[in-house]
């Protein structure tokens, strides 16, 4: 906002938040999505503007989300009603998603720090402590589901860095950074997980030998990679910047190339939601294969998010060039003439990408923000030594010594 000098627009948005944004509503919301998008956004707005209105709104929202943690295990339900405070699991199960219950910590911890009310921090740190000591992991890799009654992992033996597990790994590192790199348990869990990824999930494709992160189901490797996994090069690079092993940076660079190729090798130059890598050494095969059901692009940020980190830390202009190419492709294939952008159903048909008439809020919150930061040559602009970005790209301050 002030960074871009958009004072008038900021004024309008502030008026809207002040007059129209009311959380006293009889509506079920997802705890994770509301935390990363709304609570994270309000906390960031407070830090960037210094305006107490945003903190008041954040505290109100935090209080309304807290009932989700009233479960036998203290692992929160996925959904909570903002008006009535009644929390519940999804309709089909009493499981919560591991990534969801472990990716709300940056925001609740910050809310406690700012308000002095320890209940927010206590609720989420209880979950971190619990997951830290749970059995069912494989060399630091976690399953995708956890039961709110028993507190145990369910659907064990399936490991992915994609949907339902992704930001568990991201928040181990980012909480460690947020807290001034003092919490050894977070660091240990993160380092163990990176070793687990190397040991169980890394392979190279044929014929171009692209390094990718696959999945493991009951001991069977699958060469499937979600576009969501493309947060990982950025996270690995961030860890290396904060003093973690240099091999993490090498792996970040290799995975960054792969994520770029997931975009480049499509006819529109935009990545599909999921790819499969070819492991057969015949030259005729392509490295990146796409199933018909996975051809859509939801305007997700992960590739350009990682490009931003890689460019910040290396200064290598090829990362800016890659991001520029992706932005041009978003403009060509997803921009709607009357305004805005739309998810598309087929990244392999440049003549008819099939717009879906839907733009996720993360396109504005993350994708465009990371592109803006990627094209800036000023490392002091939201410095990565002063801020840590939550998983929805909202910057939160790294805490100084108490
Ligand atoms: C975002 O809402 C967050 O980054 C989340 O962690 C998973 N992915 C979406 C955008 O793709």
Automatic annotation (TrEMBL):
InterPro entries, sorted: 6hp_glycosidase-like_sf, Glyco_hydro_47, Glycosyl_Hydrolase_47, Seven-hairpin_glycosidases
Pathway it works in: Protein modification; protein glycosylation
Swiss-Prot/TrEMBL keywords: Calcium, Disulfide bond, Endoplasmic reticulum, Glycosidase, Hydrolase, Membrane, Metal-binding, Signal-anchor, Transmembrane, Transmembrane helix
GO cellular component terms given for this protein: endoplasmic reticulum membrane
Record membrane topology: Single-pass type II membrane protein
Pfam families: Glyco_hydro_47
GO molecular function list: calcium ion binding; mannosyl-oligosaccharide 1,2-alpha-mannosidase activity
Residues annotated as catalytic: 33 (proton donor), 166, 273 (proton donor), 302
Recorded catalytic activity of this chain's protein: N(4)-(alpha-D-Man-(1->2)-alpha-D-Man-(1->2)-alpha-D-Man-(1->3)-[alpha-D-Man-(1->3)-[alpha-D-Man-(1->2)-alpha-D-Man-(1->6)]-alpha-D-Man-(1->6)]-beta-D-Man-(1->4)-beta-D-GlcNAc-(1->4)-beta-D-GlcNAc)-L-asparaginyl-[protein] (N-glucan mannose isomer 8A1,2,3B1,3) + 3 H2O = N(4)-(alpha-D-Man-(1->3)-[alpha-D-Man-(1->3)-[alpha-D-Man-(1->6)]-alpha-D-Man-(1->6)]-beta-D-Man-(1->4)-beta-D-GlcNAc-(1->4)-beta-D-GlcNAc)-L-asparaginyl-[protein] (N-glucan mannose isomer 5A1,2) + 3 beta-D-mannose; N(4)-(alpha-D-Man-(1->2)-alpha-D-Man-(1->2)-alpha-D-Man-(1->3)-[alpha-D-Man-(1->2)-alpha-D-Man-(1->3)-[alpha-D-Man-(1->2)-alpha-D-Man-(1->6)]-alpha-D-Man-(1->6)]-beta-D-Man-(1->4)-beta-D-GlcNAc-(1->4)-beta-D-GlcNAc)-L-asparaginyl-[protein] (N-glucan mannose isomer 9A1,2,3B1,2,3) + 4 H2O = N(4)-(alpha-D-Man-(1->3)-[alpha-D-Man-(1->3)-[alpha-D-Man-(1->6)]-alpha-D-Man-(1->6)]-beta-D-Man-(1->4)-beta-D-GlcNAc-(1->4)-beta-D-GlcNAc)-L-asparaginyl-[protein] (N-glucan mannose isomer 5A1,2) + 4 beta-D-mannose
Swiss-Prot/TrEMBL cofactor(s): Ca(2+)
Coiled coil: none
S-S bridge residues: 230-259
Record EC number: 3.2.1.-
GO biological process: carbohydrate metabolic process; ERAD pathway
Positions annotated to bind Ca(2+): 391
Family from the record: Belongs to the glycosyl hydrolase 47 family.
PANTHER family per record: ENDOPLASMIC RETICULUM MANNOSYL-OLIGOSACCHARIDE 1,2-ALPHA-MANNOSIDASE, MANNOSYL-OLIGOSACCHARIDE ALPHA-1,2-MANNOSIDASE-RELATED
Purpose: Involved in glycoprotein quality control targeting of misfolded glycoproteins for degradation. It primarily trims a single alpha-1,2-linked mannose residue from Man(9)GlcNAc(2) to produce Man(8)GlcNAc(2), but at high enzyme concentrations, as found in the ER quality control compartment (ERQC), it further trims the carbohydrates to Man(5-6)GlcNAc(2).
UniProt name for this protein: alpha-1,2-Mannosidase
Species whose genome carries this gene: Rousettus aegyptiacus (Egyptian fruit bat)
């Amino acid at each position: 906002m002030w960074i871009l000098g958009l004072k008038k627009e900021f004024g309008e948005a502030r008026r809207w938040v002040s007059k129209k944004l009311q959380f006293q509503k009889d509506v079920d919301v997802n705890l994770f999505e509301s935390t990363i998008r709304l609570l994270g956004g309000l906390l960031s707005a407070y830090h960037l503007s210094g305006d107490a209105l945003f903190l008041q709104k954040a505290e109100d929202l935090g209080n309304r989300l807290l009932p989700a943690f009233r479960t036998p295990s203290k692992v929160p339900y996925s959904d909570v009603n903002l008006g009535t405070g009644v929390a519940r699991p999804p309709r089909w199960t009493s499981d919560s998603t591991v990534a969801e219950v472990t990716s709300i910590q940056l925001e609740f911890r910050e809310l406690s720090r700012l308000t002095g009310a320890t209940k927010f921090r206590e609720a989420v740190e209880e979950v971190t402590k619990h997951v830290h000591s749970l059995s069912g992991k494989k060399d630091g890799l976690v399953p995708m589901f956890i039961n709110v009654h028993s507190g145990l992992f369910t659907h064990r033996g399936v490991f992915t860095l994609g949907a339902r597990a992704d930001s568990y790994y991201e928040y181990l590192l980012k909480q460690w950074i947020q807290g001034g790199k003092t919490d050894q348990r977070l660091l240990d869990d993160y380092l163990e997980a990176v070793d687990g990824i190397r040991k169980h999930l890394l392979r190279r494709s044929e014929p171009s030998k692209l390094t990718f992160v696959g999945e493991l189901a009951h001991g069977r490797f699958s060469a499937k990679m979600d576009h969501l996994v493309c947060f990982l090069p950025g996270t690995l690079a961030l860890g290396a910047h904060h003093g973690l092993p240099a091999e993490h940076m090498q792996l970040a660079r290799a995975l960054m190339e792969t994520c770029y190729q997931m975009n480049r090798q499509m006819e529109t130059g935009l990545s599909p939601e999921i790819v499969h890598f070819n492991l057969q050494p015949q030259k005729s095969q392509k490295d990146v294969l796409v199933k018909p059901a996975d051809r859509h692009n939801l305007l997700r940020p992960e590739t350009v998010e990682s490009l931003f980190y890689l460019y910040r830390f290396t200064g290598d202009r090829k990362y800016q060039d890659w991001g520029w190419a992706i932005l041009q492709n978003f403009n060509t294939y997803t921009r709607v003439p009357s305004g805005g952008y739309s998810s598309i159903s087929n990244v392999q048909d440049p003549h008819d990408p099939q717009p879906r008439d839907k733009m996720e809020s993360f396109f504005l919150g993350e994708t465009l923000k990371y592109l803006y930061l990627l094209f800036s040559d000023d490392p002091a602009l939201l410095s990565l030594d002063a801020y840590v970005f939550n998983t929805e790209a909202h910057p939160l301050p790294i805490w100084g010594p108490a």
